[in-house]
Amino acid sequence: MSTDKVRSTKLKFKGEKTRKKRRREDEDEGAGSSRRRRREEDDEAPETWVLLENAVEIRGPTFIVHPSDPSPIVITYDSTRGRIILQSLDKERCEDAEHPSLLEREPTEVSQVWVTTRVAGSPTINLRTGTGEGKFLSCDKHGLVAADREARGPQEEWTPVVFPDGMVAFQNIYEKYLSVDEIAGGQLALRGDSEEVGFRERFWVKIQSKYKREAHEEEKKRKEGMVDDSKVDEASTNKMYQAWGAGRSVTSADDKKQLKKARKEGRLAEALLDRRSKLKSDRFC
């Protein structure tokens, strides 16, 4: 029998510190106390993948799984072909290892991880690929989902909706939901044109525990008035230094209404001035 150690397959990201196991210092401690201490250490492990409780926790490396039947799938990105792939998790099953439950699954390769970023003070998020050049997940008005843009704009914004059971739906700027759809040949693909949230629109989302704790700490400071969101206004920075859509300025619906109203008022003011000028000229004629 080979004496070689089994190599761990747990995925680690650059910059993460390896958590070392602590030896029990006090042999006189009871078994219950020891188990409690180990459980607390496991909970504090920064690289542990955990489920969400609310939308503000979604940040950093993100693992997105859909509980499809008969095989659950994970949203991955193929950097070689530059396309999104829905990968079956059952293909990763090892013959000599116990098959973990769906909620215990963790990413085993970088292509299964997305990086979530959030604009300060905004409920929307951006999902960027964790491999390749870093492309943002986007959806156009026709419901076509892709990851082929290096800059983020309105079509790259998603609003996460967390349900009481912990599952998450992602809404785009067109107020439609991301879903898993069956296309020709029985293959599965992502769509972004669902009007309502059903089974196809619900996903299990996992993040690393250190980012969940970070979100809770920020929320606590915000409630205590210790965090000023105005110091980091990424939305204003994007409008100032970046034009989305091939150099065209992209504005929100509210902005368009305000612009339209301003133009209308401007035209009325010009017409009033012209009428006054005409009346004055008629008096002197």
TrEMBL record:
UniProt cross-references to Gene3D superfamilies, sorted A to Z: 2.80.10.50
Q: Where is the composition biased (Basic residues)?
A: 8-23
Recall the GO molecular function terms of this protein's record: actin filament binding
Residues spanning the membrane: none
Question: Segment Disordered: which positions?
Answer: 1-45, 215-234
Q: Pull one GO CC term from this UniProt entry.
A: catalytic step 2 spliceosome
| Keywords of this entry | Nucleus
InterPro entries hit by this protein: Actin-crosslinking, FRG1
Pfam families, A to Z? FRG1
Query: What family is reported?
Result: Belongs to the FRG1 family.
| Listed name of the protein | Protein FRG1
Q: Which organism is it from?
A: Ceriporiopsis subvermispora (strain B)
